[in-house]
Amino acid sequence: MNWRLGFLRIWIASSVLWLLGTGLFFYNFVVDPKPYLGTHRYYANANGVQLLDYKNDLYYKVLEWADQGVMERKDLNGTGWSIELFGPASDDQATVDARLQTLAGHMEEEFAIRREQDRWKNLQSGMATALVPPIVFLIFGWGIAWIVGGFRTRTP
Fold it and tell me: Which of 5, 30, 113, 144 is 20 to 30 Å from the Cα of 56, by its Cα?
């Protein structure tokens, strides 16, 4: 019985199954990544539009204004995320819609950029996950075979 050849065949079969499994698992993450953008909140005033960050005081004041209904929300096409625009109640609807459209364009561009970045990160992770374990097990098995081979007597 040839143990080395048997274990090599087990390694080949299990590596092929491992590669297929990781390929199936990572397929959707590479082909159609879904980057997280969340809900972006902006404050509009006479000087323009400012992104609201939870670290500044304006963020909490604006959230209070949301309770008063001084807010517009726009869902981004096909992304599942949205923009919330806070502003003075005196703004007419055309101004609010124009600001939302501009912000939505910027967010969709950011979504496309992050999507490509995520695609390559997921591809790299998938390749590492697919290739490293079989290589580690091959080296480990080769090392065990080398150690066991050292205890055998050589026939002339």
Answer: 113
Domain definitions of the chain by residue range:
3-24+123-149, 40-119
Identify the residue with better confidence: 142 or 150.
142
Mapping DSSP to helix (H, G, I), strand (E, B) and coil, where does residue 2 land?
Answer: coil
Half-sphere exposure of 27 (CA within 13 A, CB side): 6
What backbone phi and psi angles, to 5 degrees, belong to 33? Answer: -70, 150
Query: At a CB cut-off of 8 Å and minimum separation 6, what does 54 contact?
Result: none
d(CA 147, CA 108) in angstroms, rounded, equals: 58
Mean pLDDT of 11-16: 95
Q: Tens digit of pLDDT for each residue in 17-58?
A: 999 999 999 999 999 887 776 666 666 665 666 666 655 555
Helix axes 93-151, 3-31, angle to 10 degrees: 170
- 């075979």: which residue's tokens? 145
CA distances from 83 to 27, 71, 154 (A): 30, 10, 75
- The token pair at 27 is 């397929």
